[in-house]
Specification:
The structure is a single chain. The chain has helices spanning 11-20, 26-38, 50-82, 85-96, 119-125, 135-146, 168-178, 195-206, 223-229, 232-235; strands spanning 109-113, 151-155, 186-189, 214-217. By secondary structure, the chain is α/β, with parallel strands linked by helices. A 4-stranded parallel β-sheet has the order 3-2-1-4, with helices on both faces. 51% of the residues lie in helices and 8% in strands. It has 2 domains: 11-82, no CATH class; 103-235, 3-Layer(aba) Sandwich (Rossmann fold), CATH 3.40.50.620.
Length: 236
């Protein structure tokens, strides 16, 4: 004989208690329900079949799994927001290519990869705006003074498809002029949209030769990708 359990104000509590020790027969269900009803005078109950009970149990399990998953996601978001997780993840990349302690006396060229300039903001305010990767500009300025006879190259266009009229090379030229450099002696590549195109388009401009010494400047975390595209097979 099928029995049905019911939904009252305390249905969820009743269901949980029954499911903790799920009965094997409909008679057991009736017995447990009657005992629970006796402890809840005045509540009206509607009976459900054992199949409905099994479905309810599955739904309860799904709900618990979803709750645990949501809790885990919230905890992960809080960890990422509060702790410097990004810095920890970037650390292996930054240590992969340590900064050289000494450069050769003869350097044929110096290439600065863009990415430190805030292009749209610079044009909006008519003032050079840089991001947290600005150290690459300072290193370029230092090496330009140390190797005045080398070729000096800046390569960066715009990675934003919607704003191709504003180029990183234009911002760099503004900065170099402010710092007193002769920009006519600097080669500017302004069509590249990514690191791969930085290498390809710069190579077309300067046509480097085998045996030359070139210095590549970029941020530490960006260096592994840069070294990959400026490899001998692609670069020379």
């Amino acid at each position: 004989m099928p029995y049905k359990l019911v939904e009252s104000k305390v249905f969820k509590n009743i269901l949980k208690k029954i499911l903790k020790q799920f009965p094997r027969s409909a008679d057991d269900i009736q017995f447990k329900i009657q005992n629970l009803k006796a402890s809840l005078p005045g509540d009206r109950c509607t009976l459900y079949s054992p199949n409905d009970m099994r479905k309810a149990r599955l739904e309860l399990k799904k709900y618990k799994k979803a709750t645990r998953l949501m809790t885990l996601l919230v905890v992960l978001i809080l960890i990422i927001a509060v702790f410097p997780v990004g810095d920890v993840l970037l650390s292996p990349l930054e240590k992969r290519f340590p900064s050289p302690g000494h450069l050769p006396d003869n350097v044929d060229g110096i290439i600065l990869l863009g990415g430190a300039e805030r292009v749209q903001q610079s044009f909006l305010w008519q003032k050079v705006e840089l991001n947290k990767s600005s150290e690459r500009f300072f290193e370029f300025l230092r090496l330009v003074k140390k190797y005045p006879h080398a070729q000096h190259v800046f390569t960066s266009g715009s990675g934003d498809i919607a704003f191709q009229n504003y180029k990183g090379a234009q911002v760099a030229k503004m900065l170099f002029k402010e710092q007193g450099l002769d920009t006519s002696k600097i080669i500017f590549e302004s069509q590249s949209r990514n690191t791969y195109e930085n290498a390809v388009f710069t190579r077309r401009l300067i046509e480097p030769k085998s045996g030359e010494n070139w210095v590549l400047i970029t941020s530490a975390a960006h260096m592994p990708r840069s070294m990959g595209v400026f490899s001998p097979g692609l670069w020379i």
